[in-house]
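Work Package 3 (structural annotation) set out to generate three-dimensional models for the target panel prioritized at the project kickoff. During this period the team completed the workflow that converts sequence records into discrete structure tokens, so that structures can be stored uniformly alongside our sequence database. As a representative example, we reproduce one entry of 329 residues exactly as it appears in the project archive.
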Amino acid sequence: MISLRYIGRSVPRQVPSAIPHLPRKSLSTVRKSSLLQQSWRGASRPSYLAFSTSRAVREQEGQVDQELSAKLESELQVERDTRDSDTLPSPLQGFLDSCPFKLEDKPGQEEVALTRKFGDESIRITFSIADLNNMDQDDADQLGEDPALSDEEAADAAATNAQSGGGNTKGSINQGRTKGGNFAVAPEDSIAPSDRAEGSYEDPSTGEAEQEPSFPARLNVLITKAGKGALQLEVMAQDGEVLIENVYYFKKPELADAKTAELDWSRRNLYTGPPFGNLDEDLQILLERYLNERGIDTGLALWVPEYIDWKEQREYLTWLSNVKTFVDA
């Protein structure tokens, strides 16, 4: 039985044989028809060019180049006006002058390193300015929240919950044991945010001025001893606190900073230690003191976020300048 596919292929070939042979036209008739067709085609051809999306000639300059260059220049001017100076601010430089760490910072690179010697140990701390750009939107909203809003909410709550007695009444003054009770603090009696010290806000629970919260900076602390392996600690520095997240031990120090696929594969199969939160509380405290003794303390936790902010602005200015130079070229 012949398949349908075979029939489909053979049909076009058999059709010409079934068509009867027609008499050939004379040569003069063919020539006349071809001349008529050519004249008709020439008459029916439109006088305008066919539509095409391709450009025959490439434009020498983009239409947005000048506008983009002007905007980049405006951004550069704004950043220059907000920056104090090209040099490292004195508080940041003062920390470097007094601490035992040596700064390693290459322009154009995101990662920054601090190194030092402690006895027979080599300590290297690395952090990146990418932490400032990679913050979650929720974290950015919390850091950028206007303290005045919290003050108004606290004042409204104090006025609503004001009572006429008791020495522990919130939102009251003249807290004594008088029979008449205490006086409620009106919202206009509270200290205005503009009258407080710069960079501080009032804690609604205590009424005391506190520093604005800083963003969390991740530190990678690597402590090595020759021939004895390496201890790696993942640390979070924020608001002057050093919070250990993980502690790893490696017999081979190169596994702590695996830069090749082979080393990374070897590291994956190693047991490097339990989560820090699962350790005994006394052991956690001793590990924190272990870092504090090596200079990884409150001073460092306050310095790193400030330095990241300063370096990020500096790198951003360089980036704006490079982009503008490229656009103008």
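Residues 1-22, 24-36, 146-150, 162-202 have pLDDT under 50 and may be disordered.
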